[in-house]
Amino acid sequence: MDWILAGKALLLGIVEGLTEFLPVSSTGHLIVAGSLLDFSGEHAKTFDVVIQLGAILAVCWEFRRRIGNVLIGLPARPDARRFAINVIIATIPAVVLGLLFEKAIKSALFSPVPVALALVVGGLVILWAEARQRRRGAMPARVQSVDQVSAFDALKVGLVQCFALIPGMSRSGSTIIGGMLLGLERRVATEFSFFLAIPIIFGATAYELYKSWHLLSVDALGMFAIGFVAAFVSAFACVRWLLRYIAAHDFTAFAWYRIGFGLLILLIGYSNGLDWSE
Questions:
Q1: What angle do CA 55, 94, 34 make, to 5 degrees?
Q2: For the range 77-83, what are the long-range contacts, defined as Cβ-Cβ under 8 Å and sequence gap of 24 or more?
Q3: CB atoms < 10 A from the CB of 33, how many?
Q4: DSSP the chain
Q5: Contacts within 8 Å (CB) and 24+ apart, 177-181
Q6: What's the pTM value of the predicted model, to 2 decimals?
Q7: How far apart are CA 154 and CA 189, in angstroms?
Q8: Whole-number Å distance between alpha carbons of 175 and 156
Q9: At what angle do helices 42-62 and 221-245 cross, to 10 degrees?
Q10: pLDDT tens track of the chain, all 278 residues?
Q11: What is the distance between the alpha carbons of residues 133 and 169, in angstroms, rounded to a whole number?
């Protein structure tokens, strides 16, 4: 295999793993990284799907005990059924809107200005949400554990997740910050965001692989394997780091990063430094 191509696959896998579960937009980062590395075309689209799968499997591994307990407890335990139903309820709105408006979103919003604006607006929303949290002071959040999330809470978080259909808005950012604004404690909102990613990303991966199955070839397996492993390892490290980080920090740093990254996209996008045609 071409070592230069292997290096690109490694870097892109790391970018996916580090950004998929942070409130910074993995889509925007993959666009920039792919363009700068001259990694585009139909195979690049399939590659992005494969590395997303690697990232979500890292979450499944990190929360394997919780997921296993829920699956085993579905026949007999009401709490396990409630948790599973909540995840399904929160997933439905984004799935429905995504299937209905996928082509329109890609044709209208997949360009430098909408993505950059989504990054900046999302950053400003995070700053506002964190300022609101500080004004609340020591007042405890209404929902203190994932098991306390109600079906109505799940529906509201699911509706907020729909904002992530806008490229650059960030699925993690939408669900985590949205969850906090809706009364979920910071760690609860973060963990619930991780669990919501599982059906969303598995479903999107299956759908995209079905559409691009003809692009999977033996020659590309090495590149896909490198990206998959890189995404898994970096996502696993990132998820563990984020759970420790939020114990003592808020998301303000990510907000300023989003704003700076959005301005960077505008700068290099309008200096013809980014290829958005793919």
A1: 40
A2: 79/147, 82/147, 82/151, 83/146, 83/147
A3: 17
A4: --HHHHHHHHHHHHHHHHHTTTTT-HHHHHHHHHHHTT--SHHHHHHHHHHHHHHHHHHHHHTHHHHHHHHHHTTT-HHHHHHHHHHHHHHHHHHHHHHHHHHHHHHHH-SHHHHHHHHHHHHHHHHHHHHHHHHHTTPPPSB-SGGG--HHHHHHHHHHHGGGGSTTS-HHHHHHHHHHHTTB-HHHHHHHHHHHHHHHHHHHHHHHHHHTGGG--GGGHHHHHHHHHHHHHHHHHHHHHHHHHTTT--SHHHHHHHHHHHHHHHHHHTTT------
A5: 177/23, 177/125, 177/126, 177/129, 177/251, 180/129, 180/133, 180/141, 181/129, 181/132
A6: 0.89
A7: 11
A8: 10
A9: 40
A10: 688 888 999 999 999 999 999 999 888 888 888 878 888 766 777 888 889 999 999 999 999 999 999 999 998 899 999 999 999 999 999 999 988 988 888 777 777 788 889 999 999 999 999 999 888 776 788 999 999 999 999 999 999 999 999 988 999 999 999 999 999 999 999 999 999 999 988 888 888 777 777 666 666 788 889 999 999 999 999 999 999 999 889 999 999 999 999 998 888 776 666 655 55
A11: 21
